[in-house]
Specification:
The chain has about 375 residues and is an all-alpha fold. Helices cover about 75% and strands about 0% of the residues.
């Protein structure tokens, strides 16, 4: 019995902690252009796949626009490093004239008097530069994400697009490119701030982890480098979770909440719903993690699939998860707040107007 009571009290403690966090949410209506549709039958995973199946052409167009226009710098970086090779790229950065080679017969180290540990640490400079390059590309990518997230949000909400008449069939055809650039025009500022901020934390966290690896390869990591490892992991995990919860709100709460309120809500979501946010990161990041497989054919196949479907997969999954949180948490609290306010207003209306509180009554004595 005592164990059950402890379990119940611990559950109450968790729920109280979550309620305390959720009480700090900034509440506002969603920035919908049409009336909210009824709940989707079958759950969120079914909604994701059904939305993609029904709108694959529109999503492919949005994916292509995001890639061609705003992700070329990132692809140029990946192609350049792949063509040169990470090892040769490191030698170029370290101004090594002659490429070192292993003395296979002796097994002592590398030619030119360079030890293997020195060569490994030298390689890390290449990874630092690549991480910095990715961080620079992230703000540029934010423009494409703005357009794609706008289209994905309208699809998840079930809203209509700007259309044109097909000359042959007379059917309404969505003007996806027009909608894409409308999304870029409306949401680019907040999306740019979001991804530029994430780029800073991404570069900082990744470089802290590289600093730890450099210490290990140099003969042993110091206490400070161990702290750098844990700090880097925490920074990367926390900032990525906040990004996941923030970028859908840029679209769904446009002008109903200011940016500071959206950031605050994203931080609260990331803490209050840590496990669901972590699971979403794993689901979204799993295809990209498979690129670490040491098989050229698998890597090429995965790279092609990520080019064709990657941006749509990440953005649509993120928007779908953001809409789930909005529907089940923020909008529920907002509706409750409206009900409480209407009750309070009714109570105030029932009070009689222009009634001044009476002071103490004084009686005059009769002469």
């Amino acid at each position: 019995m005592a164990t059950n009571q402890n379990e119940k009290s611990s559950r109450r403690g968790i729920s109280k902690f979550k309620l305390k966090l959720l009480s700090g949410l900034e509440l506002a209506p969603e920035a919908r252009n049409e009336e909210k549709k009824p709940p989707y039958p079958g759950g969120r995973f079914k909604r994701f796949f059904d939305t993609y199946k029904a709108n694959s052409g529109s999503l492919m167009t949005a994916n292509g626009m995001a890639l061609i226009v705003f992700m070329l710098p990132l692809f140029a970086l990946i192609i350049a490093v792949s063509f040169i090779g990470i090892e040769k790229f490191a030698y170029i950065l370290n101004d090594v004239d002659k490429t070192p080679y292993l003395m296979g017969g002796l097994g002592i180290g590398l030619s030119g008097g360079m030890s293997i540990s020195e060569a490994k640490v030298m390689m890390l400079l290449a990874y630092r530069v690549i991480i910095l390059g990715v961080a620079v590309c992230l703000p540029i990518m934010s423009f494409g994400i703005a357009g794609h997230a706008y289209i994905s949000t309208k699809l998840i909400w079930g809203e209509r697009f700007v259309c044109k008449k097909d000359k042959k069939t007379g059917a309404d055809v969505p003007r996806i490119i027009t909608e894409f650039f409308r999304g870029v025009k409306i949401y680019w500022k907040e999306m740019l701030i979001t991804f530029a901020g994430y780029a800073v934390f991404f570069a900082g966290g990744a470089n802290l982890i590289i600093e730890f690896i450099a210490g290990v390869w140099s003969g042993g990591a110091s206490v400070g480098q161990w702290f750098a490892l844990f700090g880097g992991i925490i920074i990367l995990l926390a900032s990525t979770m906040i990004l996941l919860n923030l970028f859908p709100q840029v679209i769904s709460y446009h002008k109903t909440l200011n940016y500071a309120a959206k950031l605050k809500n994203a931080c609260i979501y990331s803490v209050a719903f840590f496990i669901p946010s972590l699971l979403m990161l794993v689901i979204i990041g799993a295809p990209f993690a498979l690129l670490a497989i040491n098989a050229m054919f698998v890597r090429i196949l995965l790279a092609v699939m990520l080019v064709v479907f990657g941006t749509t997969y990440v953005v649509l999954a993120g928007v779908n998860y953001g809409d789930y949180n909005s529907e089940n948490v923020l909008q529920v609290l907002y509706e409750k707040l409206k009900i409480d306010q209407s009750r309070q207003n009714r109570k105030e209306k029932k009070k009689p107007d222009n009634v001044k509180p009476q002071g103490p009554v004084k009686y005059k004595k009769k002469k």
